[in-house]
Design brief:
One of its GO terms (molecular function) is hydrolase activity, acting on ester bonds. By secondary structure, the chain is of the alpha/beta class. Helix content is about 25%, strand content about 15%. The protein has one domain: Alpha/Beta hydrolase fold, catalytic domain (Rossmann fold, 3-Layer(aba) Sandwich), CATH 3.40.50.1820. Helix 2 links the parallel strand 4 and strand 5. The longest helix has 25 residues. The termini are close together.
């Protein structure tokens, strides 16, 4: 059974082979559009101009009849973590149905959003910059050749511009006032900067015209001094300009710095619209182990209510903490995006499993 891993230093794999140049080339010239059988979602490989002359690539998840009906859709830009966006860090990875094989959390959100009528763009910040082999896709540990605080921010902005340029039936297809931003780890650090009310270097408000994203969700970013917004975390002036959620487990090494920054942002005089939920004992990358969408949260004692994995059955407290964090964060973040992107509510959240894309999951 093939398995996908998320970001973080604990994700290093043994026995991986380098992706050959031929394999990468074949992946880039394969058919670009993949309608999912039995689904209203179409998956595309796309490219668009990036910063500094780079041509960025991305995987685009489209709702049913997106290109044909003349409607204006909400959208979400997704920014991957420090191990890239590809399953096993293999940039040629494809699912059994021919769709690009992304890491669990990215593909889970892409499919979910598209089925709810949201155009979703998973931006690849590594492969277009020549980081092709699995070990090159692994940009964790603080020595990344792609700067999460500058380059990743510009990538997100270029993705927004690309979405604004989509047109069909003679009209713009994406509503620029309903675009969200979602990032993990390395990518979440970029979302922290993009969501900020000020530049990193000075506590002066950015112009309203410089604000692009109406709602931002960050999963476990680094919140230390490298983020900026003050010489120390204790002296942070970081706060989001709009609605934002910040999801970090208490067992994550980044937790204390993120907690302190969140508390400062939430307090007077900033009073930021920022949610910082508690996830006791949850580690980094807590949402990356499963692609099954949760149908509920855990109960107040931390027991799974409608369990979607074997974590509770195993009696493993660490796995249960991870699962409960994933379930709560996924449910809350989805409700957050529904509210701020103006999505129609659904009677029940359908379970989306491996069978949706024809690929075995963890």
């Amino acid at each position: 059974m093939a398995r996908r891993l998320g970001c973080g230093a604990h994700c290093a794999l043994l026995g991986e082979k380098m992706a050959t140049a031929m394999a990468v080339t074949m992946a880039m010239v394969m058919p670009a559009c993949f309608p999912l059988e039995g689904s209203a979602v179409t998956v595309k490989r796309v490219s668009f101009p990036g910063p500094d002359g780079v041509t960025l690539s991305a995987v685009q998840y489209e709702p049913d009849a997106f290109a044909a009906n003349g409607m204006r859709y909400p959208a979400v830009v997704m920014m991957h973590g420090c191990s890239g966006m590809w399953s096993y860090r293999n940039v040629s990875a494809v699912n059994k149905d021919g769709t690009p094989n992304l890491q669990n959390h990215l593909e889970k959100w892409g499919l979910k959003f598209a089925r709810l009528g949201v155009v979703t763009l998973a931006v690849d910040s590594f492969t277009p910059r020549g980081l092709l082999a699995p070990q090159e896709q692994y940009q964790c540990g603080g020595n990344s050749s792609v700067n999460p605080y500058t380059t990743r921010v510009q990538d997100a902005r270029r993705a927004y511009e690309y979405l604004m340029g989509l047109s069909g039936s003679g009209s713009q297809q994406v509503d620029g006032s309903r675009v969200g931003l979602l990032g993990w780890s390395h990518g979440a650090q970029g979302t922290m900067v993009e969501a900020a009310a000020t530049p990193r270097e000075a506590d002066t408000l950015r112009p309203v015209a410089d604000r692009r994203f109406v709602a931002v969700v960050s999963f476990y970013p680094g919140c230390g001094t490298m983020l900026g917004f003050g010489e120390t975390v204790q002296g942070s002036f970081w706060r989001p300009y709009g609605a934002m959620q910040l999801h970090v487990g208490s067992a994550d090494e980044f937790y204390e710095n993120c907690k302190l920054r969140a508390e400062i942002a939430q307090a007077y005089p900033y009073n930021a619209d920022l949610a910082f939920p508690a996830y006791p004992a949850a580690p980094h990358s807590f949402d990356a182990f499963s692609q099954t969408w949760p149908v509920s949260k855990c109960d107040q004692e931390g027991n799974s209510v409608s369990t979607s994995t074997s974590a509770s059955a195993s009696g493993n407290a660490d796995k249960q903490a991870q699962e409960c964090a994933m379930r709560s964060a996924d449910v809350d973040a989805l409700d957050f995006f529904k509210s701020h992107l103006g999505l129609k509510d659904t009677a029940a959240i359908e379970t989306e499993t491996a069978s949706a894309s024809g690929y075995d999951k963890l």
